[in-house]
Design brief:
α1 packs across α12, α8 runs antiparallel to α9 and α14 packs across α15. The chain is built from 17 helices and 2 strands. It has one domain. It is mainly alpha-helical and about 400 residues long. The protein has a two-stranded antiparallel sheet with strand order 1-2.
Amino acid sequence: MHGSSTALSNLRAFVILIVVAFHSVLAYQGHSPAASAPFDDPPYLWLATPIIDSDRWFGFDLFCAFQYDYLMHFMFFLSGLFVWQSLKRRGSGRFLYERFMRLGVPFLLGVYLLMPIAHYPVYRVTATDPSWSAFWQHWMALPFWTSGPLWFLWFLLALNAIAAGLYRIAPGSGEFLGRLSVAGNAYPGRYYFGLVAISAVAYVPLAAVFAPWDWVRFGPFNFQPSFALHYMVFFFAGLGIGVGGLENGLLGQNGALAKRWAFWVAAAFATFLLWIIPTALVFEGYVGLKIVADFGLVLATAANCFGFAAVFIRFAVRRWPVADSLSANAYGIYLIHYVFVTWLQYALLGVPLFAIVKALIVFSATLMLSWGASATISRIPIGARLIGTEPRGLAKAGRASAPAE
């Protein structure tokens, strides 16, 4: 595995740590309501913050805000890197079948088996009858079936299907995207502003209509309309970079992005401020700054993705056994972790500990439990087929992809 692939494998491990950390601290944000609303009451605030603890720390608000402006986009970006190569090896039909087995089946199993278990403690917080049978009646009476963080899987499957359709009707489209991406190796700044321009067209008009917390729900299929096209842009940006090979494009180990890592880290923090400050002022009533906040988010999303990629390509090019194991189990952890998060947060309600301590307990225990569960399930043939590492012939590509790849 060459340097860029190793760096991306380590980055995959890092991203799943951030995902688990993000969900682990949600219960302890300072801006959350004073107490949980009843489970059945619209607008069902528990969808965003399942468990609300009375112990808070404002630092978690900043942490979650920082992850909010780039994390999902980055996951879609990384998930697109090896799609075109897979299509060329397998053809669109075989590719879609394997993507359905890899993404669609775990999505359905997770939504219909894991999500009710994950949300049972959410119901118990305000329930008069905490029994499972009572919960199930309330759960089935909801006007939707929430998929929690698993919405990423079906949306990624849909993007893979679009890519497969392009490969079938316009097989040269991937190479076209690849040619556009090659310049990123020597001129990442030009690539950045091109990505920002396309992202602005995809995001800003929808953001004027839909709030970031708006969701469209039909059955178990949920998505954020304001971000839908923005996620697609980053997925296909990753696809284009992967067409020509990692070392030849933006993510090349000897490319300008890695060499100027400090600049991109600084840009990530600077653009985060360009988004968070006007966003905070909009909540204070300065609605005229919303367009500034929307453009700030577009700038910050790309800059954060570039900054994290640059640091890992520059410094994380060695293999570590722990990182290899975490990377190999990242998908399983993503699929399972939410169950442990909500139950651990529920178990710590009323326990006299600082919010930071509670969050560390939830994060550490969730990571260990979901990591162990993923490793165990992957040893079972069907588990290995659905959530284990890619077949040996795809190891170099699959191990560097995003948590849901």
